[in-house]
């Protein structure tokens, strides 16, 4: 599988998943996700997928510090409806990384390992998403401002030509390279930029 080299440079997200350990899927229960995993889930790499991955990484850092986050023990609330804008796309990535699921998620075993009803929409939260630790109740609100990382001006013209079937092979290649360069800048150059990835502790 061929993909941009910078994908491998994006910090990975490590979590402990007690269900994975219990069922023998992962011996020590430690699961590691990469940005490439998010790309595979979404089927593409874009600022939205990048923001979902980056926001989750920053939120988990804020909630757990140096300890491993517990996958499946995190409540996630979105301010918007899942059909609004890119909320659904972001939610899919966040759900994969945290284990939090809507009402279609895993119902658990004897009341344990429940993933269902940990992800909510149209919540009364001030920023885009609120993450809550189920064990301690600690919360953080997060939002992405990817507009702070503008793309190359060439992209808009190349996109129009590509969507209109008028672009040459070289132009399509150029567009893709410029598109992924913006994603690279968001995740690597601005991955810890508080102006791009806003994280606010609640309380």
Written description of the protein model:
- This protein has helices at 18-22, 35-42, 47-64, 87-98, 154-163, 169-189, and strands at 13-16, 30-33, 74-78, 119-120, 129-133, 139-144, 197-201.
- By secondary structure, the chain is an alpha+beta fold.
- It has one domain (13-201): 2-Layer Sandwich (60s Ribosomal Protein L30, Chain: A), CATH 3.30.1330.
- It has a five-stranded mixed β-sheet with strand order 4-3-5-6-7, with helices on one face. It has a two-stranded antiparallel ribbon with strand order 1-2.
- Helix 4 links the parallel strand 3 and strand 4 (119-120).
- Helix 3 (47-64) packs across helix 4 (87-98) and helix 3 packs parallel to helix 6.
- It is globular.
- The termini are far apart.
- The mean pLDDT is 97.
């Amino acid at each position: 599988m061929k993909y941009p080299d910078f994908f491998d440079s994006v910090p990975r997200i490590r979590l402990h998943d007690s269900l994975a350990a219990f069922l023998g899927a992962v011996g020590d229960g430690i699961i590691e996700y990469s940005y490439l995993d998010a790309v595979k889930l979404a089927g593409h790499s874009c600022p939205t997928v990048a923001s979902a991955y980056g926001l989750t990484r920053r939120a988990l850092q804020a909630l757990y510090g140096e300890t491993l986050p517990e996958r499946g023990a995190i409540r996630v609330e979105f301010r918007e409806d899942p059909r609004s804008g890119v909320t659904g796309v972001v939610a899919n990535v966040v759900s994969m990384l945290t284990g939090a699921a809507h009402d279609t998620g895993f119902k658990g075993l004897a009341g344990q390992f429940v993933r269902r009803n940990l992800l909510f929409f149209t919540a009364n939260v001030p920023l885009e998403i609120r993450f809550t630790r189920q064990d301690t109740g600690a919360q953080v609100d997060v939002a992405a401002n990817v507009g702070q990382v503008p793309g190359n001006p060439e992209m808009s013209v190349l996109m129009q030509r590509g969507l209109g079937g008028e672009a040459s092979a070289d132009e399509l290649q150029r567009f893709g390279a410029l598109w992924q360069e913006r994603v690279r800048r968001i995740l690597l150059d601005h991955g810890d930029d508080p102006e791009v990835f806003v994280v606010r502790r609640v309380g």
